[in-house]
Amino acid sequence: MPELPRELIRIEDPADPRISAYRDIRERDLVGRQGRFVAEGKVVLNVLFSTARFTAESVLLLENRVAGMEELLAKVPEHVPVYVADGAVMDGIAGFHMHRGVLAIGMRGEEESAAALLARLPERALVVALAGIANHDNMGSIFRNAAAFGADAVLIDDDCCDPLYRKAIRVSVGAALKVPFARGGTATSLVEALAAQGFETLALSPAGVQEIDAVKRAQRTALLLGSEGPGLPMSLLDRLPSVRIAMREDFDSLNVAAATAIALHRLWR
Length: 269
Fold this sequence. Notes:
- The protein has helices spanning about 25-30, 40-50, 70-75, 85-95, 115-120, 135-150, 165-170, 175-180, 185-195, 235-240, 255-269, and strands spanning about 10, 35-40, 55-60, 80-85, 100-105, 125-130, 155, 180-185, 200-205, 210, 220-225, 240-245.
- The protein is of the alpha/beta class.
- It folds into two domains: about 10-105, CATH 3.30.1330.30; about 115-269, 3-Layer(aba) Sandwich (Alpha/beta knot), CATH 3.40.1280.
C-alpha cells in the first residue's frame, strides 16, 4: 500500500458497528438516515471535502481503490475516520457489489428556508424552481445543469424527491452538494417567495407563450419546471409568463433534465 497522508482503519467484519451507517445501502436509501446521506465516488467526495456547506462523519474505501487517493485523503479532516475493507467485506456491508468502493457519510445539518436562501443571493441572480420532480436521475441532472450554467440556487417543493439521495448526488457529479438549495412548501409558495425577493419567474412548458431564445433575462430571474407528464399546474401557467423551447411540431416534449439544460444555457448566455 502506498504511503498515505493519514492512518486507515481496517474493517474485517461487515457487522462492525463502526460502519453501521453504510450497511444495507439500498434499503437505507429508501427509509432515510436520520440526518445523514451517502456520497459515492471520488469526484463526489472531492466536492464534499472542498465545500464548507456539508461535513462528513466518515469515509469507507475499497482496499484496491486506496492507491491514487492521496490527494483526496489529504482533504479529509483529522477527526473524520477513514475505513478500508476488501471486496468481500465491502459487498457484505453494502448488501450488493460495490464496484466503485469510494464512499462517505455526510451530515445534512439544518436546512435553510427558501426565503432565507433567496434573501442572501446577489442582486443579479438565476434560480431554478422545481415542482414535483420525482425521478432521482432527473433531479441529479438538473443540479448538474444548474452548476454548469451558473444558477445561484435551486428551490424544491414538497412533491420533489430528495436531492441528497445517493443516486441523485452521484448523477449530479457532486453538484447537489455545491449548488445551494432549499426545499419545502408548494410550487405556489415557492413562486410567492421568489416574487417577494424581486424575482421574475418564467414557467417552462411545451405550451409556453414565448420562445426561450427571445427572453430578455431580468436582474433576478427564476426558471420554474414541473414533472414530466403532468407538468406545471394550470393555475401557475395562467399566472406566470410562460416560455417554451422550439422543436419540431410533430414531437411532444423533451426530458425535463434536457429541457432544463437548454433553458438555463439560453438564460446564462
